[in-house]
Automatic annotation (TrEMBL):
Protein name stated in the entry: Nucleotide sugar dehydrogenase
Domain UDP-glucose/GDP-mannose dehydrogenase C-terminal: 348-440
Domain of life of the native organism: Bacteria
Taxonomic source organism: Antrihabitans stalagmiti
Gene Ontology molecular function, alphabetical: NAD binding; oxidoreductase activity, acting on the CH-CH group of donors, NAD or NADP as acceptor; oxidoreductase activity, acting on the CH-OH group of donors, NAD or NADP as acceptor
Amino acid sequence: MKSLLEDVHPFHARDDVGTVRVAPPNAVAVGPHSVGLVGLGYVGLPTALALADAGVTVLGCDINEDRLAAIKAEQVDLLDADRQRLSRFLGTTCLTLTTETSALSTMDAVLICVPTPLDAHLVPDLTALRGACAAVVESARAGQTIVLTSTSYVGCTRELLVEPLRLRGLVAGQDVFVAFSPERIDPGSPDHIPAHTPRVVGGVTAECAARAIQALAKTAPSVYPVSSPEAAELTKLLENTFRAVNIALANEFACIARQLDIDVVEVIDAAATKPYGYLAFRPGPGVGGHCIPCDPHYLLWQLKASRMPAPLTEAAMAAIAARPRAVVTRAEAVLAMTGLPLAGARILIVGVAYKPAVADVRESPAVEILDDLVRGGACVSYTDAMVDSLHTSAGRLNSTNDFTPGNWDLVIAHTLHPSVDHSWIGNAPLVLDATYQLTDVPHRHVL
């Protein structure tokens, strides 16, 4: 069977598993000389730096002036390699930062990398996505390649880019070249940097896919083309729904193991020795960040229009949503073992970022846990070397460095940053280990 691209650009050759291996830049085509990025968050900024490092002239657009100021001051959360790149490219012609999207018209290619969060009712908030796509359509010119990378619903590329471009007289596949390529960035993880992670691309036409691959080839080791933007959009939703379902299962087994007085980590490690049919997921206090708590809801939201149920996904997301409350309930039970009520208890949460090695608190379970503890009458503080302050229902809290054992009735381990010394937790009178990592700590309880 022929590759999607074999009749378009033969220098993209498939390997045995179907991945498109991109030839060295001097082989034939080298892709665009200039790329504009809309959105300079956890996806856009590392992508911009990777492109600049590959010799592409980059224009970074973000409507948030505070974000641009933070980037210019190098006060942004980046891996060391990207931090060095940022220092190297700031103030040079390799990387230009602006709030003006009109400048995108001068770029050979444009990548859209804006956030796609949920509102308080778990409904997709498309404000940033619609605004970014509208700005790109307005500035688009013939010959450009436009790639949407933001996670969204199936059909968003055609609805927000292809059709508006057509109304401007720019036909996808003829005048402009449009594709969807979902971001695959794991913040804080040096093992999963974009340069080591294959990309999926779905173009409106084969030529659209080929142009998008050229635009992205320098940011990934390989590119896997699919037949359409819709297939690429659903690929991203499958990836993170898979993770959500398995995290919910790991959390459920953690509760089962505690009930049976078995160490769930020992069981997971044993199961992980099976070389086929099993992938290890770890239990924890809940799920945070930009992807897993949000992305499956884009699918569920879209399916409501056709009244199509997705019971497994729905159950997993309900279980994930309930996990922070389970931490509070367990904390109350652990305190009760020592005769202490939740009301008035002095509780310290260790780590409020949604995952280790990042300063990001978006959708972090710690925020909900903290708020619920406060509503229960507890006196709650937190410590996090990467998060100086946190907005809660009780107001703004600052990270504390008070680790005196006698000052806390209960310590809840939520996020353990790898570069931080947590040995003091061993002196705490009572510990609720929601990370399942503190196996040697006395007075330890798990969820």
